Amino acid sequence: MTNQLSLFMDQTTEIRDIRTEKQATNKVSYDVGELIGGSRKELAELRKAFEEKQSSELLEIIEKINPMLSEELISKKQFFKYFSFEAEKEKGTQPAIAKLKQLILHRVDNIPANQTREGRKSFMEAAQYLLICMEDLRVIDDVAPFINRLGNQLRTERQHKDKYNGPARLGVLGSKFRDFYLKGGFRSSFKTAFLINSWEELLTKKSVSKPKKKSSSWLRDLPERPDRKGGSPRSIQKPEDIISFFGYRGVQFGNYGAPRSHINAVA
Question: Each residue of 59-84: pLDDT tens digit?
C-alpha cells in the first residue's frame, strides 16, 4: 500500500509547518501542509471576531466560507446582548424609559425572516441602526421624537419599497416591531413601562424555582480510551508522517486539546 501511495506523491516536496501561535510549543499537535479553509478552528475564530465586532465586511467573509455559521450569528440575541438595565442606569436613562427600550427590543424577530445573504445583512444593519437611534432615548421628552422618527422612516420604506434608499430597512425586524410604530402598538408598551417608578423595581430579581433534574432512563458505559482493532499499527508519530503516508494536502489540530489525546489521534 505504501508503494502504491508513493507513486502519487513527490517525495522531495517539503512539508510546511503552519502551526498557530497557540501551537508554538506543541511537539505533536501542530498544523502542517496546506491551510484547510472552513475548519472548525477557523470558524471558531471567525465567530469570536464577529461576536466582538459586527461588520458587513466580516459578515461577507463568513457568508463565503460557511453560510450556516452566518445563520447562527445573525440573531436578535447577538445584536442586543449588551442591553441591560444596569447599563441604562449608568447612562442616566430614566427607569420607565429603560423598560420601554426593553419592550421595543422584545418586539424584534429572533432571526431574519429572509434567510439569504442579503436578508441577513439587512437584519444586521437594521438592528445596529435601531441601537444607534435608541442611544438618544433617555428621558420621557425623548419618546415622542423617537417614535415619530422611526415611524416616518417605516412609512417611507413601505411607500417606496425597492426604491427606498434610507440608512437601514427597519421593516426586516419583523411585523411586531413594525406594528409598534405603525399600528399604535406602543400604547400597551407605554402602559407597562410607565408603571415603573424606580430602578429598584427593575433591578430586583424575582426568585424563580428551579425545575428538578430528571434522571436518565439509561446510561451507556464507554471505555476511557477505545482500543484500535483491525490492521497492523503504523509508525506515524507526528503530523508530517500522516501527509507522507496518506498523501493529504494538510493536517490541522484544535488549539486546546490535551497532548495525550492528540498523540492518540496521530498514532
Answer: 999 999 899 999 999 999 999 999 99
How far is 137 from 223, CA to CA, in rounded Å? 58
Which range, 3-17, 122-136, 162-176, has the best average confidence (pLDDT)?
122-136
Which residues make Cβ contacts (< 8 Å) with residue 227, sequence separation at least 6?
Answer: none
Tens digit of each residue's pLDDT (9 = 90 or more) over 248-266: 877 777 776 666 666 666 6
Query: Are the C-beta atoms of residues 179 and 81 closer than 8 Å to each other?
Result: no
Q: Which residues contact 105 (CB under 8 A, 6 or more apart)?
A: 76, 80, 83
- d(CA 70, CA 121) in angstroms, rounded, equals 10
What is d(CA 252, CA 159) in angstroms, rounded to the nearest whole number?
Answer: 53
Q: Buried b / exposed e across 207-226, counting CB within 10 Å, b at 16+?
A: eeeeeeeeeeeeeeeeeeee
